[in-house]
Design a protein that fits this description.
Keywords: Calcium, Metal-binding, Repeat
Helix content: 55-70%
CATH class: Mainly Alpha
InterPro entries: EF-hand-dom_pair, EF_Hand_1_Ca_BS, EF_hand_dom, Recoverin
GO molecular function: calcium ion binding; DNA-binding transcription repressor activity, RNA polymerase II-specific; potassium channel regulator activity; RNA polymerase II cis-regulatory region sequence-specific DNA binding
GO biological process, one term: regulation of potassium ion transmembrane transport
Number of domains: 1
Radius of gyration: 15 Å
Structural class: mainly alpha
Shape: globular
Distance between the termini: 22 Å
Order of helices and strands: HHHEHHEHH
Number of helices: 7
Pfam families: EF-hand_5 (PF13202), EF-hand_7 (PF13499)
CATH superfamily: EF-hand
Strand order of the largest sheet: 1-2
Number of strands: 2
């Protein structure tokens, strides 16, 4: 309903996996409540850990360009083709390159949680976005 012109199915799978803490392929009420609790009332570090986990698709402790590209494509698919101005097909890959320029501090081609945490904590825009759910409930 939020993105009527897009396809949210792939992004929904990534969100599901982020909430599925025990990785058993099912969301129990506890998984859902713990995830919401972190997003709504967690510390900044807990929220950043949750976000990192969302991007780390294979859960190996680092984010690769391929993983980030999958996430970005799913986000652009969710937004749909009817955005104004129209998005270029290269937009997801360009977004990934910008992400890695900012986050991959040692230039080894992957983003570790430590790099992610350090970069996010120094970015005022990211830090203010961590407060987005503060007053929801």
């Amino acid at each position: 309903q939020f993105f009527p012109q897009g396809d949210a199915s792939t992004y929904a799978h990534f969100l599901f996996d982020a909430f599925d803490a025990d990785r058993n392929g099912a969301l129990c009420f506890q998984d859902f409540v713990i995830g919401l609790s972190v997003l709504l009332r967690g510390t900044v570090q807990q929220k950043l850990e949750w976000a990192f986990n969302l991007y780390d698709i294979n859960k190996d402790g680092c984010i690769t360009k391929e993983e980030m590209l999958e996430i970005m494509k799913s986000i652009y698919d969710m937004m749909g083709r009817c955005t104004h101005p129209a998005l270029r097909d290269s937009a997801p890959a360009e977004h990934v390159e910008l992400f890695f320029q900012k986050m991959d501090r040692n230039g080894d081609g992957v983003v570790t949680f430590e790099e992610f945490l350090e970069t996010c904590q120094k970015d005022k825009d990211i830090m203010s976005s961590m407060q987005i759910f503060e007053n929801v409930i």
